[in-house]
Amino acid sequence: MTAALTTPPVTKVPAAPAAPRKRRLRLGTSTVNLVLVAVSVVYVLPLLWMALASVSDLNTFKLKLPDSLTLDNFDAVLNVDTTFRPMLNSLLLCGFGTAITVVASILCAYPLSRYRSRVRRPFLYTILFSTGLPITAVMIPVYSMFVQVDLIDSMPGTTLFLAASSLPFGIWLMKNFMDGVPVVLEEAARIDGANTMQVLWRVVLPLMRPGVVVVTIFTFIGMWGNFFVPFILLLSPEKLPASVSVFTFLSAHDQTQYGQLSAFSIIYSLPVVMLYLLLARKLGGGFALGGALKG
To answer: ABC transmembrane type-1 domain location, by residue (predicted)?
Structure first.
């Protein structure tokens, strides 16, 4: 005689009504959208003010539609002393400074990413601390050292200091990108006879190209907007970059020329926007490390 097995009745948990859940989801989405719109307005309003003031015939700091559109503000600033020479100085300072920072970051990040030693962790902590150190805290001793070694008012000296001050952030960011490159690819290259530099330039760097692009963009933007370092270390007016010459619109004239200041600000922003548009394509491909491993 076999005992009949009886399955206990399953108590179903009543599901939440669909309509209140959809309403809560819709309310949350609307709240997030409103916050994003508010944050966007905070960023857009200064840009809108700058765009309107650059083509306005009214020299006012209030945000209002101009009575008539004019390009006189651009004509007033498009000359050698006001725009072209400061922009060239900025390109030289930031271009060479960024190149030095990126190359030095790659060379410093590779041993930190691949080799283990007792000083590795303290060195990484030192780099992390240096990334948060405000540059204004060290400018007085830096100015004193530049005077003693006769590098004050020197474009190469200022470029080297800009590169050195950007190096901790570049090394830290580059190392994190380099950690994502599989070591097995380097081991395969070493079996084929490649040395360390060949592995770095032919295997690691092509796979972390988006990381190099990110470090390049962030470093260039940081140097391009740096006002304090060239203001302290460069004295001759013909050597000042655009980030310092914009100060003349606020101090050298009897009345602040808001229209010319806005026109100059738009021209001053163009190199950064162009650099981002040119290098942003490199960010779309990703690392493709999975495909490399499968190959």
So the answer is: 87-279
Residue 195 lies in a domain: yes
Q: Which residue positions in the chain have pLDDT lower than 50?
A: 1-5, 285-295
**Per-residue pLDDT tens digits for 178-223:** 988 888 888 888 888 888 888 888 888 988 888 898 899 889 999 9
Rg (CA), the chain: 28
Q: Which residues contact 75 (CB under 8 A, 6 or more apart)?
A: none
Mapped onto helix, strand or coil, the DSSP state of residue 69 is strand
Contact in structure between 73 and 54 (CB atoms under 8 Å): yes
Q: How many domains does the chain have?
A: 1
- List the end-to-end C-alpha distance of the chain, in Å, as a whole number: 64
For 109, counting Cβ atoms within 10 Å of its Cβ (0-12 exposed, 13-18 middle, 19+ buried), the class is buried
User: What CATH number is given to the structural domain containing 275?
Assistant: 1.10.3720.10
Distances (CA, A) of 71 to 23, 55, 134, 184: 51, 6, 39, 59
Task: Show the domain range for 196.
Answer: 75-283
In a domain, 49, yes or no: no
Rama region for 8: left / alpha / beta (φ>0; ψ in -120 to 50; rest):
beta
Whole-number pLDDT of residue 283: 63
The per-residue pLDDT for range 92-127, each reduced to its tens digit, is 999 999 999 999 999 999 988 888 888 888 888 888
DSSP states along 91-119: HHHHHHHHHHHHHHHHHHHHHHHH---TT
Question: Does 290 reside within a domain?
Answer: no
